[in-house]
Amino acid sequence: MMFTHFKNIDTAFRHIRTFSICLILANIFCICFCIYKSYNMVNKAQNRIHILYNGKVLEALASDRKSNLEVELRDHIKTFHQFFFTLSPDDKAIQATISKSLYLADESAKKQFDNLRESGYYNNLISANISQEINVDSTKLDINQYPYTFTCYATQKLVRSTSTAIRKLVTQGKVRDIKTQTDSNPHGFLIQGWEILINQDEAPKP
Q1: Most CB atoms closer than 10 Å: which of 58, 73, 115, 175?
Q2: Is the pTM higher than 0.85?
Q3: Residue 105 DSSP symbol
Q4: What is the pLDDT of residue 25?
């Protein structure tokens, strides 16, 4: 009788131990599942951004920057050239737009600006009351090497009161990621080693 009693206790203990192990494993599984779901929710939340448009808050999904790298690089290069070459016949206006462009490039852009200023380029624009506009036609990019190299092809339009001149512009340089975005440099890129290859009047069409 006593042996039967001990056997029942042993059997009950085994059942309790088996139940306890199953309960612990179930708890571990639940904890791991909760951590996994929480991690996914955090990632989804981080990929959601809110945009204020016309007084309304809109929700959008933020994509991986790598997938938009070419688009951002082209826009950075285009913005830089527009600031650097879109000029009004006013010294303060020229200084303002050039200053904006210099936030997007290193000292190589400042060097090009100094060269143009010393050659009297800006004084000629002011004295002749010439407005200069630029249109970036295309940008050749190589994103397989870093810093990213580019060649920019653009057309300049110099508008006088009596005539309009068209100039061909070709520049080249490299772009590196400075990993810091600001109001003055929203993409967080910096053009370096920038140089003007061609800046001349287009031949008149026959």
Answers
A1: 175
A2: no
A3: B
A4: 82
